[in-house]
Amino acid sequence: MTTGGPSADVRARRPSALAEGWRAYRNERGGVFGLAVLVLVVLLALSAPLLTDPAGLDVTRVEEAPLRPPGAGHWLGTDESGRSVLLLTWWGARVSLLVGSCAAALSMVIGTLVGVTAAHFGGWTDTVLLRLTDFFLVLPALVLAIALSTVLSRGVFTIVLAIGVTSWPQTARLVRAQTLTVQTRPYVERARALGGGHRHVLGRHVLPAVLPLVFATTTLTVASAIIAESTLSFLGLGDPSRISWGAMLKSAMDTGAVTAGAWWYLFPPGLGIAVVVLAFTLCGRSLETVLNPRLRGEGR
Amino acid sequence: MTWNPTGWFFLDTYREGVITMRVSAVGVRTARPRAAVLLSLLVVALLAPSAPFAHTGTAQTRHDRAAADGEVTLRVGIQQEFDSLNPFLGFSLAATDVFRLIYPTLTTYAPEDFSVMPELATEWTSSPDKLTWTFRIRKGVSWSDGEPVTAADVVYTFERMMNDPAAATANGNYVDNFAEVHAPDARTVVIRTETPQATMRSIAVPIVPEHVWSGVDDVAGFANQRMPVVGSGPFVATEYRPQQYLTLEANEDFWRGPPTVDRLRFVNFENSDAAVQALRKGDIDVARELTPAQFDALDGARDIERVRGKGRRFYEIVLNPGATNSAGSPIGTGHPALRDVRVRRAIDHAVNRAELVDRVLGGYGTVGAGYLPPIFRRYYWSPPEEQRRSFSIEAANRALDEAGYPRGPDGIRRGPSGKPLDFEFVLHGDSATDALVGEFVKEWLARTGIRVRLLPVSDNQVNQRTTAGDFDMVVSGWSVNPDPDYVLRLQTCGARPDPGGGGLPDSFLCDRRYDELYRRQLTEFDESERVETVKRAQRRFHEMATGLILFYPNALEAYRADRFSGFLRQPAERGVITAQQGYWGYYRAEPTERARTAGGGGGYRSAALALGGALLLGGLVVAAVTVHRRRTAEHRE
Questions:
Q1: A192-211 residues touching B, CB cutoff 8 A
Q2: B1: which chain A residues are within 8 Å (Cβ-Cβ)?
Q3: Closest-CA residue in chain B for A12?
């Protein structure tokens, strides 16, 4: 029992459960819309090196006049060095999405580990881990992230670390609560009675029951991580060697694009952030609804 | 075993939750109106007091209400913070600009052409060997607290700088060579120097009152923020809020006559866009350090006049030539390859200055040359054709190949020790110019097999890293005085930091031949000889290529034409309003009739009143509604 995988019966049930989940998800109009937008954005971001010429990002190679309004040659105008804003926004999506998802994944891993450990072992472990969680919860995340990214060397992964390390407490709390309820179920009790160790109970029973919830939360965390990344880049703490939406907004502010009335420089990255965050939020909410029949019932 | 495949885990708990929710909803209903009233009252009470004070944080103070009496306030928007109001410590442009307004100097520079003219000293003579200088101190000048300004104050200031290393931080170059300073009588100062010193007629050291400063034991720790600051310039600093504003009142007893405005205020802005918006709204009168985009955008704006002045700043990239401190021991984290002058020259070849002026400055600047900016025509030196390192990626690649830095498998060149040429380029984090220059330089150097990693940090960190030698490449730049001694000294061995910190180094050049030329120009009194020596020093600096002078940016400013009809600019031809070598621009501002009759920009005040009114109204509505709800609660149930 401790070594074998799920029984053939369970294995057969898994795809059908997925299919049922997808059916439920399809009924969420917002979720489908969000997913469609996300797929589109991700595909575009991934295909940027194939569809566009990165030489257009090299300031020494562009010929266009700076801060040109949208026109035929450059649909979204140009930035202060004559680069196409469309191209910048396109490439900026890559960093924003990368940092957003990596940071969310990191926060998910930390949050799940802390939450499950605290709930499962209880007692001292629980107290210590919970106080640690509380500490991070009351600390203003942005301030901590700023401090971290100032101290560590510049780079994408510093930002990922700074956001990931500061955004896990909510996940940890949620996972802990969920683990507590799962552990009172009769089947967990039965597994224990049959001699299942910590590893077995956690790996075979608790984690699979908690993961769907974690998944839904992570989707929502991505949205806030993207905002956090843009904020940090806007404050000048991002990776200066890569274009991101926040960094675009920062250079627009620094060059005086607002005074110059260069709306085309501020609008695309801002819209990009808003759309992607909205899409992630819609997906996350729909996932929650699918996984939580209570919400589903009320939604109709 | 059972495995819960879809995770319907909420089933067994949620019913309970719904029940409790319903219970609590019922329980709260009666209590809510009172709580809401209390809450709304609390909110109103917390917010209301902020309205009358809202404008103190944004450039306005109670003084402005007196503007109706015909008083004029000149409000200048600045983006740099005052690094220190202590004249012995502050060296930022913002701070030195204030020191010129509140402290006297022995001499000053004429507004027309930067020629030396009397200030606190009415006349001066030197001995035939140029080692003893005698200054006559102006009669009838007094400090703002009524004490007379005497020769003793001058002696005290110089002696303090000679004896206290902390007091020599900002202007130490002037007194390095002083042997003795004394005052035979209350109106005479005699300075004896070790060797002849050519800068004796232009000592830009703020003179401080002895009766105030003799009580200061620790200069390095003294902020000089007790208002009003005792001084003797055309203005008196009266109110200071760090990162918000500094207010100066006109000194009616100033010996040259009172200034044309009654008050001067420097208002801090976080970014230049905010300053420009404030200028457009009329909340400030002068905005400076505009970006080219802003300068172009203000073209034709109503009531706004633009000033494009010849800048006296140079903008350079410092290549760390192996920084050492004054004891000669290596400091910092400079890349060993940059100690090779051939690498530094190759990098110079890979920088296209004309392109930078065109694309980064939008044409508002002059291509960089030797060292000193062309505004000071006499000292300006531009490398002749055969010495100029013109832009050529091929030449840079060839030079690096010949110097023995072959490309590795990844295309990055390797030094003799096998260390890749991978340089950290430190930039000012919130400067658009730095960001763009960084991008350009990075791309150009990438084509020569050198990797550059951009590192934008805060201004303070740039200064710290520069002083500590913790950089491979860093952006630097200085405003040059009409007498070039100050910036020339930055490249000498004497400017290197002390082992314990302090010091104001620039490129850590520390070259024997350069130092020799520096010493000679300092002791040279024949004008044309000195100019020649200064040019030779610049040539040496160019040869060593520790600092690559990229360009001399124009000073871009704009002012409210409805409130000020003009300013005394320095120099007369294409001069600037702010950050002059002297107080002329502020002292001789020309307010219009309108500025005298109408108060300065009520924008913030009316906004604050409107906000306060809206809050009060909102509070009243909330209170009325809740009262109404409570009264009719039984009926609705």
A1: 204-205, 208-211
A2: 1, 7, 187, 190-191, 204-205
A3: B5
Q: Which residue of B has its CA nearest to A205?
A: B3
* Contact status, residue A246 vs residue A238, Cβ threshold 8 Å: yes
A261 chain-B contacts, CB cut-off 8 A: 297
Match 């060059």 to its residue by tokens. Answer: A255
Burial tier of A151 (Cβ tally within 10 Å: 0-12, 13-18, 19+): exposed
In 3D space, the residue among B262, B255, B263 whose CA is nearest the CA of residue B143 turns out to be B255
**B515: amino acid identity, one letter:** D
CB contacts, 8 Å: B465 with chain A:
none
CB atoms within 10 A of CB B119: 21
Are B432 and A251 a contacting pair at CB < 8 A?
A: yes
Half-sphere exposure of B569 (CA within 13 A, CB side): 19
Give the residue carrying structure tokens 């919130």: B430
Q: Is the peptide bond before B228 cis (omega within 30 degrees of 0)?
A: yes
> Which of 14-73 (A) contact B at CB < 8 A?
14, 17, 20-21, 58-61, 66-67
Pick the closest to residue B361 from B308, B423, B322, B285 (CA basis): B308
Provide the residue-wise pLDDT of chain A in tens; the chain has 300 residues.
444 455 566 666 677 778 888 888 888 889 999 999 999 999 999 999 999 888 888 888 888 888 888 888 788 888 888 889 999 999 999 999 999 999 999 999 999 999 999 999 989 999 999 999 999 988 888 888 888 887 887 788 888 999 999 899 999 999 999 999 998 999 988 998 998 888 898 888 888 888 888 988 999 999 999 999 999 988 888 887 788 999 999 888 888 888 888 899 999 999 999 999 999 999 998 988 888 767 665 444
Which chain B residues have a beta carbon less than 8 Å from that of A294? Answer: 10, 14
Interface confidence (ipTM) of the complex: 0.80
CB contact under 8 A, A14 and B272: no
